[in-house]
Every structure is written in C-alpha cells, then in structure tokens.
Amino acid sequence: MADTQDKYYEFRLRTKIIFQSGGSALVAEEAARLGLRRPFIITDRVVLRLGLLDRLTGLEPCGTFPDVPQDSEVSIVERAAALMKERGADGIVALGGGSVIDTAKAVNIVFSLGGRLADHEGVGTLDVPLAPFVALPTTAGTGSEVSQHAMVKDASARLKIPFTSHTLAADTAVLDPALTVSMPPPVTAATGLDAMTHAIEAVFAANASPLTDALAAGAARDIREWLPRAVKNGQDLDARGRMLLAANAAGVAFSNAGVGVVHALAHGCGALRGVPHGVANALLLPHGVRFNRTAAPEKHALLERIFGEDVAGALAALTRACGLPTRLRDANVRPEDLPALAEYGEHDGALIFNPREASREDLLGILQAAF
Ligand SMILES: [Fe+2]
After folding, report:
1. Of 203, 242, 330, 337, which shows the fewest CB atoms inside 10 Å?
2. Cα of 195 to ligand 1 centre, how many Å?
3. Is the pTM of this model over 0.85?
4. Which domains does the chain possess?
5. In sequence order, which residues have a C-beta less than 8 Å from that of residue 310 and are 6 or more positions away?
C-alpha cells in the first residue's frame, strides 16, 4: 500500500441497515420510529402480483404507487410525487428492485423540495434533509438502498439523469432474504453480477479507501461463493441472504469509492440496445479488469487473493457458470454500435473515477475485446 501521508479519505453512510429473514414485518415499527404517520408505498406490478406488500405487517399506508417501470423516467417520478401530496403522505416505503428504489429517491426529492425534478440537478443542490424513507430491496444487486445515487431516464433525450447526494440513501434499509426468493435465475444472475461489478470497480476506483476496500473485497468473495447457489436454487434462503448482504456491502463501497470504465460502457449498452444493466456489466467486467490491471497493480493483487492470478478469467467463468451470455454480440449489441458506445462511455460520469484514463480508442478496444 502507498503511504497514507498524502491521502485524503472520506466515507459516509446514513442508513440504518437491518437484516433478518422475515424482517419485512419490522417495517411498521421502523416507520413509526422515523416519525412516519402516513407512509406512502412505491413499488412495481411484479411485487404487487407476488403479494409481497402483505409482508409489511401492521403498516397502514395512505396510498400506493405500483407503476414503476423497468427504467423509470421523469414523468413517472413527478406523477408519484403528486399523488403523495394529494394523499397527505409524510414519507416513503419503497419495495422493489433498483428501478423502484431509484424512483423512490427521485420522488422524495420532488416531494420534499417541490418544483420539477429537473430543478434539482447538479452537485450539492440536494444536501438538505428529505422526508423519511424506508427501502426494502427485492433483488440482490444495485445496493440502491444505501447508495448516494439515483438514475432517472429523461424520456425525451434517451439519457439517464444522475442525482447524487448522501441524503438520497434510505434512513432504514430492511434486508429480508424472503423477499428475493421469487427472482428467476437470469435476474438473480444479472443483478448478482451487477453487485460483483460494484465490488470490483470500487476496489479499483479513484476514491477507494481502506474502508471501501474491506467492504468491496468481502462482497466480491461472498458473491463468488454464493451467487451460483442462488442461481441454481432460488429457494436457498442462506444463499439469498448472503447475496443480499454482499450486494448491500458492495453498494456502500461503490457509493463512496466510485465505479469506473465498466459502468461507463454498460450505461451505453442499456441506453442504445436495452441490454440489462447487470448483463452489460458482466460482459464487460473481465475486460475492464484487464484494462485497469497495470494502472493499479496493488488493487489487482488484492483481488488475486480472492480469485487467483487470473482475476479476469475467474470473473468470466463465474458469468458463464451463472448462465449469462459472455459476449456483447450475444446480448443484442451489433458491430456497428461499438463506435457510438465508445463515444457514450467517454461522456459518462462513471469514467471520472476509473484509475486509468481511457481515451475513446481505449474504450473502443475494450468493447471490441468484449464483442
Ligand atoms: Fe451497477
């Protein structure tokens, strides 16, 4: 490790994290502790159909917004915030995957601060207290319940607008493995590899610290061990619990450390060809590791202790073992897309935290290797 004398570290986590199988039943008590009298539920149709809202025993919501789509957008956020106001809500309980929880964060911005969502773009504009917010993830992937980020699609521009502030993370995150057992294997695999990508990119990222390294390395180790089991047998509550905890730890790590080149390129694959976020990350991850290896050899060495000498190869093998495609060409990306994807990646905010500077040619090289 380099000398600490020339280092600056900063680490934030505002979220109380509760883990328990069946822990959804604790939400009513947590909401009351946060002063929530009229909680408003934000969720999606899948959660509704699976009857997962029934697990929130004793919670008396003043309203429910069940219409969050796969990729949430500004109009949805503003519609949900308006409904919250209409119902006289005083805070949010979000139950769902990354899109639901990101949407809830953005709804909280509009609900708490007023105006339109676009009024609150930019750095530092959100460092004010928002309404009480409890999040229950139903996937083990994004870590959105603890992260400082929310991504919302601007429907007109086909862009994702990022919002960043530590105030966006939930006041309380309830990790209940029982909520995740109905995830089908491909979703378990993709979201799990998104979490793995958070862990690996956090290790390499510019704002990494000993705290984030410890969380990220532990998460990477656990995901490698438990993800194949969760994919193979969705009912394995032990594997589901381990994955939920690892995704959460990876979320805390990347929220503080940053991500990097893999996320920068994956965002474009999602925007241009609708490749699921976790799948795009999984396909690009080994190539991102190869690209960053020389720039941060001590970080690669940290990962070698988990994966052996060939970290990139071990990650590709994990993706294969989880039944996901291993090449971009098998995930709806076409050869003629690669230059546009390189250009998209060059302008993506995630690239700022990559340990090695990447030119457009570098990005094209990574995409070609992954194709
Ligand atoms: Fe991600």
Report:
1. 330
2. 7
3. yes
4. 16-179 (3.40.50.1970), 183-370 (1.20.1090.10)
5. none
